[in-house]
Hints:
The protein is of the alpha/beta class.
Amino acid sequence: MTSRTQTTFAPPVMQARRWLADVTFSEDTPLINVSQAAPVDPPPEALRDAMAEALKDPETHLYGPVLGLPALRDALAARWSAQYKGRVKPENVAITSGCNQAFAATIAAICSDGDTVILPTPWYFNHKMWLDMSGVTAVALKTGPDLIPDVQAAKALITDTTRAIALVSPNNPGGVEYPAETLQAFFDLARAHGIKLIVDEIYRDFDSRDGPPHGLVSDPNWGDTLIQLYSFSKAYRLTGHRVGAIFASPDLLSEVEKFLDTVAICPSQLGQKAALWGVEHLDDWLDRQRREILDRRAAIHDNMPLLTAKGWRLMGCGAYFAYLEHPFAASSADLAPKLVSAIGVLALPGTMFTPADDSSGERQIRIAFANVDRAEITTLFARLASLDWPLATPTSPA
């Protein structure tokens, strides 16, 4: 008998951390860890002070509403309405224990055993893992060289069992920002087929574009099709406090509430109060963080010619990620562990983001650059350029 957890793979980030065992790094070549996107710095001091003050409130230590603090739901509804130029009400908002739980709750609310959900590849591995553990089949929608999913290819994959298409923009792992017209086309496709479009926008605060990244919420009936996911982990460095959000129709959130009440009862009160304080006070601080991330993105492009000359290709870059195609003969599954001992770099192989029968991941590596500054990015690229491993045989033209 196979349990639900046995239907899926081990957590990739935890697997990668084990590659560090028994490896000693010198002062001249310290470890450069670009394996995980979570910020390692604490929240800003003013936010930590506000959290310390919140701890004095007895209600902080009690159960709260299952769908989240009303004040936070109100604030998010107002922010979403303004930023997306649409109408979002508090009853369209649910607070969750992180964005992964937001996805899990959404799938529990819309899917049953044997259903299918379309995921563009390379995919975010935790989405695939949750679908596996839910008895839901992930249908791979392979993207092209630009990593942008094609709506006509998605249309060909829709069947009677399809319940949703799940997109991540800005993308993890690819970093690409999906064009507004791409998201609109997927919205129209989902609505035409009576399925949901899930858009995970956890990295939206670091989008390089000014203004709303899409116009989906301006549709007066957006809730019949669209489900948006969000998190405060990246925005305010609240990773350990697990505060995320779902934006959806009230009818769907009534189903989500059943899941949340059973799994966690309510999100962390302290985390929610921290998120609310951030929404009310940290816009300028968050804008500075965005500009810093955009400068690191620029540093990737500035240093890329060094790798291009060695046969590497930049497939996507944005938010926290650069997605690279390497030139070597060996699979990235074998190369990534070797990078640790060879040049002191911890990165994730593309095989962690692709189906087992998709060989494209063998040529790909994800770089998460949120925790490395411009100087460290320069060092990272110099180390990668120093590799002289056997090269892959060039593919002959068809």
